[in-house]
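Can't paste images in this forum, so I'm doing it all in text. The chain is below; anyone willing to post the predicted structure tokens underneath?
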Amino acid sequence: GGGMVGTACVAAARLGARVGYVGTAGNDLAADIKLRSFREAGVDLSHLVVRDHAEPHVVIVYVDEETGERAFSGLRDFDVAPLRASEIDRDYITSARYLHLDSFHTEAAIQAAKWMHEAGKLVSLDASKTDGGPVPERLLPLIPLTDILICGSGFGLSLTGKRDIWEAGRAMLALGPRIVVQTEGEDGSYTTTAGESFHTPAFKVNVVDTTGAGDVFHGAYLVGLLHGWDLRTTALFATATAALECTKLGGRRAIPTYDEVIIFLHERGISIA
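Text version of the structure:
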């Protein structure tokens, strides 16, 4: 529950970070299920806004245990109001070192991002993937307010018109972000900054379920930055975390702990901590 940012929050918390989630929830069983994984991971929900109606956005993922093939079903009530800027707490938001956003609650997200920059803090954005389709309009005003843009397959092409992944990365930097990370599944990730560009290969693992892998990458990436690691080490850590998440069924249930990631890397001759 909680969408892309929600899974990133749970991942970061399981990896040892102090995390708070700001968003909305309904008052029904679906909402209870949505919030359970937050509480189990120790995510602070003190600034969650509870609406007096059923959970408006529910997606169920079915995974074939033998093949890993997935099917999605869902429902969404488009008449339900998103989180408003007037419902978020500036002091709480800016107490964080990083603010992680996705394409939901745009009004509140824009305000929160502005507050973070005024406080000298950093904003990351999960731009998801487009697979060559158009970029959602609600994302566009967030990009200039973003310091760390992490996007999935096709997003760079859709946003910039550049087919070359490095050219797309440089074009996205020109829109405002300081760091652009383009994730490409089994092809790994491509990082672009003003000072360097590099590719981080994916780890070879027995893939069982890829549900939430990108979101887990985002949460782990922020944990790497919190540790003060350089971008290559941070990308490596996030890649390892996402790889481990893919080796078990269950989305958030499969998110590894910090120690499990360090052991995974150590077994491959890599030491980062």
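The chain is about 35% helix and 15% strand. Residues 3-266 form a domain with the UDP-N-acetylmuramoyl-L-alanine:D-glutamate ligase fold (CATH 3.40.1190.20).
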